[in-house]
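Next comes this protein:
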Amino acid sequence: MKTNGMTLAHFCSEVRRKGALALCLALCMLGLGLSGRTHGPTIVTFDAPGAGTGPYQGTLTLGRGAEISGYVIDPNNAYHGYLRTPDGSFKTIDVPGAGIGPNQGTLAVGLNLEGTITGWYVDANMVSHGYLRGPRGRLTKFDVPGAGQGAGQGTFAANINEAGQIAGWYTDAAGVMHGFLRARDGWITYFDAPGAGTGPGQGTNTSLYGSLNPMGVITGNYIDANNVTHVYVRTPNGRFKTIDAPLAGTGAGQGTFTEAINPVGTVIGFYIDADNGYHSFLRAPDGRFTEFDVPGAGIGPYLGTIASDINPEGEIVGEFFDADGAMHGFLRSPDGKFTTIDVPGAQGTGCDTNDALGAIIGIYIDGNSTYHGFLRTR
């Protein structure tokens, strides 16, 4: 399958590398269809209110927990955030000031266990602004000082933990990314990973929804002056550790990419090798580095394994591309065993996030290239 002339796998790589808007992330992740109740896992699919039914419209999932956050792409290709509660009901989230045109609107990205959501909204001028939505619906908008006010610039709030800290990035007027951490009281700390580039499209960012653990440790990516990506881990006292996979490529667009960190500090992600193939990794808190590829993953440009999240139990989910470029979801247990997740009739299968109880959240795409959400429980 191709998107604008490039393979889906290549598009997925480009989106993750640049830390672009969550719309692009959603286009990289294809998912699961409805399964009947069996003795194994149960899958429930859902569509949030207002979701469009055209190609690359529909329901996208991002936040993890008993509740699910995400956004829809409506028939006009505008975004609307949502919160799905455990009973299957929905609350629509539209931040005042959000635009209503294509690629404008509200995205609900990070979600903590108390039901607080963070994310960003895109205004009519295509500038992004951060927001916080409390469990009872109270909205707080914020912009990081220094965030640019041009199209594609602004504040991108992406992660929230149980302490109410928010981590994300902002893009300045020169198009350079910088990380930030916002405390519950609104105090903002800015940071740049050592070695981050200072040109347009370079700098420091976080991944979506999984980059901030309960202790305030942040993981993310930085793009250097040669447009190579590296992983950083930032401790609460502001110290940095760089992680580079030994076999990661060193060309522009290649390198090592993180997707999430769990409560004990295990970092997961993937790297792009010199041939533009994907391979996944986990880095334990003591520094042990483990690489893995799902059996059946293809070898070569834009093929391979992409890990997307890790839960407190050490289970990892993600997607892999086979030799034909088809996309499949996977679950990796702490002992290294793999379960492939495919749904009959789906164009592709992908897993976005997983929680402490083993629930997996993601999306699937139907024959009309429309997105739908899913929740897979044990």
Remarks:
- Residues 1-38 have pLDDT under 50 and may be disordered.
- The CA atoms of residues 172 and 202 lie 11 Å apart.
